[in-house]
């Protein structure tokens, strides 16, 4: 699908957006919370460049990656589970306090949401970020008023790349596969959209585990959501 004509006055009827790395650059806050957790456990900090590459599969995986010091974490040995639980609790507490402090809305986001809403498109957020952090971040970023639904990583029993959260949001907003688009920054978003049978726009400026998004099967890849106008 070419980008020309991808967005028209009548299409899409439902647009679903990933949050971290697509609407909001939240990596500074996530990195601060991860580093606070590592420090509290007596470990060396990871830093934002590293943490940015670990975001995209939810808080539990982020904490497991931080403990392993790499993206491909090994399944924890039973004796490591207690450490993981402690680390996760520290991370949740730290991120709950830091969430939104250094995060910023990417250029082009407001204009894109505004134009879609103007055309009667229903907007939703489908993120792997735990639900309790989603509304506070959207509110602080001044984005909450655009969205009719938000699904967090723990709202349903499964998260992206499983298609279920996308399909759930799509149906809740009265959309169908033919009238819905997913917009995201990572393989988790693109694979969820492919599995759901929903067209997908990928943004290049996000995280995607430090890898380019161009060859992952998205219908369009953009440098800014303003390109969609
Ligand atoms: O919390 C994460 O790992 C990422 O969340 P996202 O799905 O909004 O990119
Ligand atoms: Mg993302």
Automatic annotation (TrEMBL):
<dbReference type="InterPro" id="IPR036412">
    <property type="entry name" value="HAD-like_sf"/>
</dbReference>
<feature type="binding site">
    <location>
        <position position="20"/>
    </location>
    <ligand>
        <name>Mg(2+)</name>
    </ligand>
</feature>
<dbReference type="InterPro" id="IPR023214">
    <property type="entry name" value="HAD_sf"/>
</dbReference>
<dbReference type="InterPro" id="IPR050155">
    <property type="entry name" value="HAD-like_hydrolase_sf"/>
</dbReference>
<feature type="binding site">
    <location>
        <position position="18"/>
    </location>
    <ligand>
        <name>Mg(2+)</name>
    </ligand>
</feature>
<keyword id="KW-0460">Magnesium</keyword>
<dbReference type="GO" id="GO:0006281">
    <property type="term" value="P:DNA repair"/>
</dbReference>
<keyword id="KW-0378">Hydrolase</keyword>
<feature type="active site" description="Nucleophile">
    <location>
        <position position="18"/>
    </location>
</feature>
<dbReference type="GO" id="GO:0005829">
    <property type="term" value="C:cytosol"/>
</dbReference>
<comment type="similarity">
    <text>Belongs to the HAD-like hydrolase superfamily. CbbY/CbbZ/Gph/YieH family.</text>
</comment>
<comment type="function">
    <text>Specifically catalyzes the dephosphorylation of 2-phosphoglycolate. Is involved in the dissimilation of the intracellular 2-phosphoglycolate formed during the DNA repair of 3'-phosphoglycolate ends, a major class of DNA lesions induced by oxidative stress.</text>
</comment>
<dbReference type="GO" id="GO:0008967">
    <property type="term" value="F:phosphoglycolate phosphatase activity"/>
</dbReference>
<dbReference type="GO" id="GO:0046872">
    <property type="term" value="F:metal ion binding"/>
</dbReference>
<comment type="pathway">
    <text>Organic acid metabolism; glycolate biosynthesis; glycolate from 2-phosphoglycolate: step 1/1.</text>
</comment>
<dbReference type="GO" id="GO:0005975">
    <property type="term" value="P:carbohydrate metabolic process"/>
</dbReference>
<keyword id="KW-0479">Metal-binding</keyword>
<protein>
    <recommendedName>
        <fullName>Phosphoglycolate phosphatase</fullName>
        <ecNumber>3.1.3.18</ecNumber>
    </recommendedName>
</protein>
<dbReference type="InterPro" id="IPR037512">
    <property type="entry name" value="PGPase_prok"/>
</dbReference>
<dbReference type="Pfam" id="PF00702">
    <property type="entry name" value="Hydrolase"/>
</dbReference>
<dbReference type="InterPro" id="IPR006439">
    <property type="entry name" value="HAD-SF_hydro_IA"/>
</dbReference>
<feature type="binding site">
    <location>
        <position position="185"/>
    </location>
    <ligand>
        <name>Mg(2+)</name>
    </ligand>
</feature>
<dbReference type="GO" id="GO:0046295">
    <property type="term" value="P:glycolate biosynthetic process"/>
</dbReference>
<dbReference type="InterPro" id="IPR023198">
    <property type="entry name" value="PGP-like_dom2"/>
</dbReference>
<keyword id="KW-0119">Carbohydrate metabolism</keyword>
């Amino acid at each position: 699908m070419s980008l020309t004509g991808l967005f028209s006055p009548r299409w899409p009827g439902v647009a679903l957006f990933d949050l971290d790395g697509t609407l909001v650059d939240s990596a500074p806050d996530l990195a601060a919370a991860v580093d606070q957790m590592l420090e509290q456990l007596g470990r060396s900090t990871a830093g934002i460049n590293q943490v940015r590459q670990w975001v995209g599969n939810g808080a539990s995986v982020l904490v497991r990656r931080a403990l392993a010091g790499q993206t491909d974490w090994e399944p924890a040995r039973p004796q490591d589970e207690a450490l993981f639980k402690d680390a996760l609790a520290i991370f949740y507490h730290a991120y709950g306090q830091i969430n939104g402090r250094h995060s910023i809305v990417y250029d082009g986001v407001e204009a894109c949401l505004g134009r879609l809403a103007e055309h009667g498109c229903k907007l939703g957020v489908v993120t792997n970020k735990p639900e309790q952090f989603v509304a506070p971040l959207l509110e602080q970023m001044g984005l909450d008023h655009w969205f009719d639904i938000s699904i967090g990583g723990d709202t349903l029993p499964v998260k992206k790349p499983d298609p279920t959260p996308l399909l759930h949001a799509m149906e809740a907003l009265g959309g169908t596969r033919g009238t819905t688009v997913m917009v995201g920054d990572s393989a988790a978003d693109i694979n969820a959209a492919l599995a759901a049978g929903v067209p997908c726009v990928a943004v290049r400026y996000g995280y995607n585990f430090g890898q380019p998004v161009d060859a992952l099967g998205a219908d369009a890849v953009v440098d800014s959501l303003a390109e969609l106008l």
